[in-house]
């Protein structure tokens, strides 16, 4: 059973979540760390990424977190605003062994814009399918990591099995204390 979305859409959402999570956890502070993360996720155009590019990217992460947390109608408005502000021009590309998929900006666009437009594009299908609720935060209050719920009935509550079992153990202790 898989979701009715292209694979690259789910990858885009997972990359967006990872970016915000790592930044919040203090693991993403330098241009080099952002370059490495982009390389891991084969996000193109990051090879010559500068400190200014990294700073511009950090300044967009609040927007990506808001896409994650807002309801569907607000997300639709935000996506349109992101496209208009960045001058998005969707086009099909094939690169790095990835089959045809959409890029929102030309290859020479600033990487920070490419990152936020890429996130916004992934939300197009979620808005159309009324499925933005799959973009969740971990149910463990001490964690709150962003994750994309790929379960069939949108029932996943935790970012990881670690958080899930920690919460289960706490609930068990609460019941039996
Ligand atoms: Zn691509
Ligand atoms: Zn968690």
Radius of gyration: 17 Å
Report helical residue fraction. Answer: 40-55%
Q: What is the molecular shape?
A: globular
Please state the structural category: mainly alpha
Top CATH class: Mainly Alpha
What proportion strand?
Answer: 5-15%
CATH architecture: Orthogonal Bundle
Mean pLDDT figure = 93
Strand order of the largest sheet: 1-2
> What is the third-level CATH name, the topology?
Jann2411-like fold
Number of helices: 6
Give the count of structural domains. 1
- Kindly report how far apart the N and C termini lie: 40 Å
Query: Which regions contain 5 or more consecutive residues with pLDDT less than 50?
Result: none
Order of helices and strands: HHHHEEHEEH
Query: What compounds sit in this structure?
Result: zinc ion
Explain how this protein is built:
It is built from six helices and four strands; from the N terminus they run ααααββαββα. By secondary structure, the chain is mainly alpha-helical. The chain has one domain (7-176): Orthogonal Bundle (Jann2411-like fold). It has a two-stranded antiparallel ribbon. Strands 3-4 form a two-stranded antiparallel sheet. Helix 3 (51-69) runs parallel beside helix 5 (111-128). It binds zinc ion (2 copies). One zinc ion binds next to loops.
Secondary structure topology:
Elements: H1 7-24, H2 31-40, H3 51-69, H4 72-86, E1 91-95, E2 98-103, H5 111-128, E3 135-137, E4 146-148, H6 161-176
Antiparallel strand pairs: 1-2, 3-4
